[in-house]
C-alpha cells in the first residue's frame, strides 16, 4: 500500500487501467462459458415446449370431428338406415348436411363390411378404401382415429360403430354398422395449421430421420394407420433466431472496454469535478430541474447533493400544492356551509311556512292535505340531510366497521329490485329491471349485506333521480379467477360531463344545480358510497357521457362462505291476542315525543301509560301486569333504555318491547336487534310504521277463531 501511495499519477492510472482491463476480460470469459451452457439449455427447453404445443394443437384440431362422430353414431334413425338402406333418408340427413361435418368423405358400412352408401367432395375423387380388417378393428375399439395414404395425399379417418340412442356409451348393444368420416390433409390444411402454430408444416414419408438444425426448431409428428404403424409424418419447423455464438463480438467488446479504460483518465477530472460543479452553480442560480436530475446521476458526494437539491425542490412544490389544496378546501367548506344553510333552510321554510298556513280556517280539505304532504316531504328531506352528515362524520372517525356475514347474493339482488321498483315515481317512464348474471352464485358469500345494499340503493336512487325516461338496470358478474364480484348500475339519464367525472366522488361536489334547480343535495351521497365500497375492500368507477346516461360499477372481494348453515328455531316473544283496548307503556322523557306517540296509539283505541325514565318503566311493568307492550326510548335519565330492558326481561321475558330512538344508523339498529328488542323504530316517528308494529304485535286472532 505504501509503494502504491508513492507512485506518480501516471503509474496509478496505468495500474488502474490494467486492473480494469483484466477484470473485464475475466467477466467476459465467464459470460462466454455461461452463454454456451444457456444456449444448450434454452434450445432443449424451447424444443420441449414446441413439441407439446404441436401435439396439443393437432389433438385439438381433431376434437370437433371426434365429437361429431360420437354424437352421430348413437342415432336410432341411422340404425334404421343400416337396415333399410333408404336412399332418400341418406340424401336428406347425410348428403344435405354434409358441410356441417367438415369432412371430405362420409361412408356408412353394414356389419357385413359392405359399403351401404357414401358421399364426398371433389378432393377425394375415388373416395377411400376401408377394408374388412379395418372395420373389425373399429368393432373392437368402438371408436378409432387413424391415417391412410391415398393418391391425393394423407387422409385422417374417424370411424365408429353404430348403436341405438339408448346406448350412448356403446356397451349395452351390439354394433348395427359402421360410420366413417374422413378428411384430406392437403396443402390448405397444412397452411392453416402453419398459421395457427406460426410454423412451416410439411408432410414427409415415414422413413424421414430428424436432424437438428441450428436456425430451426423441428418437431416430427407421427401419423399412424389402423395397425398403429407410422404411415406418414408431419414436419413442423419454426425459426430459432436466438444466437448465442457471438464470440467475436464479445472479444470486440472486451477490446473496446480496454481502449475506453485508457481514455478514463482524460475525462476523470472533467466528469468527476468540473461538470458536477457546473451543475451545482446552475441549480443555485436557476433551480434547473434538468440540472438536478443530471447531478443525481453523478456517483459519490455530488449525487447525494443532487438528491438533497431534489428533496428540497419536492418539499417546496408540496408546500405550494398543500397551500392550493388548503385554499380549495377552504372554498369547498365555505361552499358547503352556504349549501348546508340553504339545504336546511329550504325544507324548514316549507315546514314553518305551511304550518302557519294551516292555521287559516278558510282552507279547504284538499289544500290542508296538500300542505301536510309538503310538510311531511320537507321533514323527510331534512332527516336525510342530517343522516348523511352523521354518516360522513362516523366514517371520518372510523366508527363504522364492516359486519361480515354469509349473504345469499341472488336473494339479496331480487329483494333490492322488489323494494326499489315501487319507489319510481309514476310520472317517470322508466323501464327498471334486474340483469341476470350469466353465472349466478349458488353459494353464499361473506360480506356486509347492509352496506352492500346501501351502496346499491344510493347508486340506483341517484339513477332514478337523474333519469326522466328510458331504462335503469343493475346486476352483478362473477370473476372467480380474479377473485372479485363486479356490480353495475346503468341508466339512460342526463349523464355526467368529463369535468365532473374527475370529482364526482369528492365531498360537497354537486352537479344537480347545472341540470335542474329541483335536484338538490349536499353532495355527500357518492362520497359515502365510495367510502363503503373501500371499506368492503373494493373499488368504484363511473363511465358517462352527457345525454347518454351513466354506468357506475364497483367491485368487492369474492369470499365464498364455506360454513354449512344450521337451521335453528329462533325464540321470539309471543304475540299477544289483540283487543281494541290494550294497555301500552310509553317510556319517554320528552313531552312532545310522548304526546305524538300517545296520539298515534290512541288512534288504534289502546290505553297509554307513561314512564319518564327507565327506573319508572321497570316499576310500572312489575306493577301493571296488564301492560301488553312497551315502547322504550333508549336515552333516558336514571336508567337508560338498555338497562331498563334487561331488568324488565328478568320478570317478564315474553313482554314485547319496541325500541324507539333517534339513533338511526345501520350499526345502531343491528346493536338494538342483537340486544334482544322485539322491534325497532327510529325518530322522527311515522304513523304507518307505528301502526305496522302495533298490527304485528297485536295479532288479530278473530278471523282464525271464526274459521
From TrEMBL:
<dbReference type="InterPro" id="IPR001789">
    <property type="entry name" value="Sig_transdc_resp-reg_receiver"/>
</dbReference>
<keyword id="KW-0597">Phosphoprotein</keyword>
<feature type="coiled-coil region">
    <location>
        <begin position="305"/>
        <end position="332"/>
    </location>
</feature>
<feature type="domain" description="Histidine kinase">
    <location>
        <begin position="339"/>
        <end position="560"/>
    </location>
</feature>
<feature type="modified residue" description="4-aspartylphosphate">
    <location>
        <position position="633"/>
    </location>
</feature>
<keyword id="KW-0812">Transmembrane</keyword>
<dbReference type="InterPro" id="IPR011006">
    <property type="entry name" value="CheY-like_superfamily"/>
</dbReference>
<dbReference type="InterPro" id="IPR004358">
    <property type="entry name" value="Sig_transdc_His_kin-like_C"/>
</dbReference>
<dbReference type="InterPro" id="IPR005467">
    <property type="entry name" value="His_kinase_dom"/>
</dbReference>
<dbReference type="Pfam" id="PF00072">
    <property type="entry name" value="Response_reg"/>
</dbReference>
<dbReference type="Pfam" id="PF05228">
    <property type="entry name" value="CHASE4"/>
</dbReference>
<feature type="transmembrane region" description="Helical">
    <location>
        <begin position="250"/>
        <end position="267"/>
    </location>
</feature>
<keyword id="KW-0175">Coiled coil</keyword>
<dbReference type="InterPro" id="IPR036890">
    <property type="entry name" value="HATPase_C_sf"/>
</dbReference>
<dbReference type="InterPro" id="IPR036097">
    <property type="entry name" value="HisK_dim/P_sf"/>
</dbReference>
<keyword id="KW-0472">Membrane</keyword>
<feature type="transmembrane region" description="Helical">
    <location>
        <begin position="13"/>
        <end position="34"/>
    </location>
</feature>
<dbReference type="InterPro" id="IPR007892">
    <property type="entry name" value="CHASE4"/>
</dbReference>
<protein>
    <recommendedName>
        <fullName>histidine kinase</fullName>
        <ecNumber>2.7.13.3</ecNumber>
    </recommendedName>
</protein>
<dbReference type="Pfam" id="PF02518">
    <property type="entry name" value="HATPase_c"/>
</dbReference>
<keyword id="KW-1133">Transmembrane helix</keyword>
<keyword id="KW-0902">Two-component regulatory system</keyword>
<feature type="domain" description="Response regulatory">
    <location>
        <begin position="583"/>
        <end position="698"/>
    </location>
</feature>
<dbReference type="InterPro" id="IPR003661">
    <property type="entry name" value="HisK_dim/P_dom"/>
</dbReference>
<dbReference type="InterPro" id="IPR003594">
    <property type="entry name" value="HATPase_dom"/>
</dbReference>
<dbReference type="Pfam" id="PF00512">
    <property type="entry name" value="HisKA"/>
</dbReference>
Amino acid at each position: 500500500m505504501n509503494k502504491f501511495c508513492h507512485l506518480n499519477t501516471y503509474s496509478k492510472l496505468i495500474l488502474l487501467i490494467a486492473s480494469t482491463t483484466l477484470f473485464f476480460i475475466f467477466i467476459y470469459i465467464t459470460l462466454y462459458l455461461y452463454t454456451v451452457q444457456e444456449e444448450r439449455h434454452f434450445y432443449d427447453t424451447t424444443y420441449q415446449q414446441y413439441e407439446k404445443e404441436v401435439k396439443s394443437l393437432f389433438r385439438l384440431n381433431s376434437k370437433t370431428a371426434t365429437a361429431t362422430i360420437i354424437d352421430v353414431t348413437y342415432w336410432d334413425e341411422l340404425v334404421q338406415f343400416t337396415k333399410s338402406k333408404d336412399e332418400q333418408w341418406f340424401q336428406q340427413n347425410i348428403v344435405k348436411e354434409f358441410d356441417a361435418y367438415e369432412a371430405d368423405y362420409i361412408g356408412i358400412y353394414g356389419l357385413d363390411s359392405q359399403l351401404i352408401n357414401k358421399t364426398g367432395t371433389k378432393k377425394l375423387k375415388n373416395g377411400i378404401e376401408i377394408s374388412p380388417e379395418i372395420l373389425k378393428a373399429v368393432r373392437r375399439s368402438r371408436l378409432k382415429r387413424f391415417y391412410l395414404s391415398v393418391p391425393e395425399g394423407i387422409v385422417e379417418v374417424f370411424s365408429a360403430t353404430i348403436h341405438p340412442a339408448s346406448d350412448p356409451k356403446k356397451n349395452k348393444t351390439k354394433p348395427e354398422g359402421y360410420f366413417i368420416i374422413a378428411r384430406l390433409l392437403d396443402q390448405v390444411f397444412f397452411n392453416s395449421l402453419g398459421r395457427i402454430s406460426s410454423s412451416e408444416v410439411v408432410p414427409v414419408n415415414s422413413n424421414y430421420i430428424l436432424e437438428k438444425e441450428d436456425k430451426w426448431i423441428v418437431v416430427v409428428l407421427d401419423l399412424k394407420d389402423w395397425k398403429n404403424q407410422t404411415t406418414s409424418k408431419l414436419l413442423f419447423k419454426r425459426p430459432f433466431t436466438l444466437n448465442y455464438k457471438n464470440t467475436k463480438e464479445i472479444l470486440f467488446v472486451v477490446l473496446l472496454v480496454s481502449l475506453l479504460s485508457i481514455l478514463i483518465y482524460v475525462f476523470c477530472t472533467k466528469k468527476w469535478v468540473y461538470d458536477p460543479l457546473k451543475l451545482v452553480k446552475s441549480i443555485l442560480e436557476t433551480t434547473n430541474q434538468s440540472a438536478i436530475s443530471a447531478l443525481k446521476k453523478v456517483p459519490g458526494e455530488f449525487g447525494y447533493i443532487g438528491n438533497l437539491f431534489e428533496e428540497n425542490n419536492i418539499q417546496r412544490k408540496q408546500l405550494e400544492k398543500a397551500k392550493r389544496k388548503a385554499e380549495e378546501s377552504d372554498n369547498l367548506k365555505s361552499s358547503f356551509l352556504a349549501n348546508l344553510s340553504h339545504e336546511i333552510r329550504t325544507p324548514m321554510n316549507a315546514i314553518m311556512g305551511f304550518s302557519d298556513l294551516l292555521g287559516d280556517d278558510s282552507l279547504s280539505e284538499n289544500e290542508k292535505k296538500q300542505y301536510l304532504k309538503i310538510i311531511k316531504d320537507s321533514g323527510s328531506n331534512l332527516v336525510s340531510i342530517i343522516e348523511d352528515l352523521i354518516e360522513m362524520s362516523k366514517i371520518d372517525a372510523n366508527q363504522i366497521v364492516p359486519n361480515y356475514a354469509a349473504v345469499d347474493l341472488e336473494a339479496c339482488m331480487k329483494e333490492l329490485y322488489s323494494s326499489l321498483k315501487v319507489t319510481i315515481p309514476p310520472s317517470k317512464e322508466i323501464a327498471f329491471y334486474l340483469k341476470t348474471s350469466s353465472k349466478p352464485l349458488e353459494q353464499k358469500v361473506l360480506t356486509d349485506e347492509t352496506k352492500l345494499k346501501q351502496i346499491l340503493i344510493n347508486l340506483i336512487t341517484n339513477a332514478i333521480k337523474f333519469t326522466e325516461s328510458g331504462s335503469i338496470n343493475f346486476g352483478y358478474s362473477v370473476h372467480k379467477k380474479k377473485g372479485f364480484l363486479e356490480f353495475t348500475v346503468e341508466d339512460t339519464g342526463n349523464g355526467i360531463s368529463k369535468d365532473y367525472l374527475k370529482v364526482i366522488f369528492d365531498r360537497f361536489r354537486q352537479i344537480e344545480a347545472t341540470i335542474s334547480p329541483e335536484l338538490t343535495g349536499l353532495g355527500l351521497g357518492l362520497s359515502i358510497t365510495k367510502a363503503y365500497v373501500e371499506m368492503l375492500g373494493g373499488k368504484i368507477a363511473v363511465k358517462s357521457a352527457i345525454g347518454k346516461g351513466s354506468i357506475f360499477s364497483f367491485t368487492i372481494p369474492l369470499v365464498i362462505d364455506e360454513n354449512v348453515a344450521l337451521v335453528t328455531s329462533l325464540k321470539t316473544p309471543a304475540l299477544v291476542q289483540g283487543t281494541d283496548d290494550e294497555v301500552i307503556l310509553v317510556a319517554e322523557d320528552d313531552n312532545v315525543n310522548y304526546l305524538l306517540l300517545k296520539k298515534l296509539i290512541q288512534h288504534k283505541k289502546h290505553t297509554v301509560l307513561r314512564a319518564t325514565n327507565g327506573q319508572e318503566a321497570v316499576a310500572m311493568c312489575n306493577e301493571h301486569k296488564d301492560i301488553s307492550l312497551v315502547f322504550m326510548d333508549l336515552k333516558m335519565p336514571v336508567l337508560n333504555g338498555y338497562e331498563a330492558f334487561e331488568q324488565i326481561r328478568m320478570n317478564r321475558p315474553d313482554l314485547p318491547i319496541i325500541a324507539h330512538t333517534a339513533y338511526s344508523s345501520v350499526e345502531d339498529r343491528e346493536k338494538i336487534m342483537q340486544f334482544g328488542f322485539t322491534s325497532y323504530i327510529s325518530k322522527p316517528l311515522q304513523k304507518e310504521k307505528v301502526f305496522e308494529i302495533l298490527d304485528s304485535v297485536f295479532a288479530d286472532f278473530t278471523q282464525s277463531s271464526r274459521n
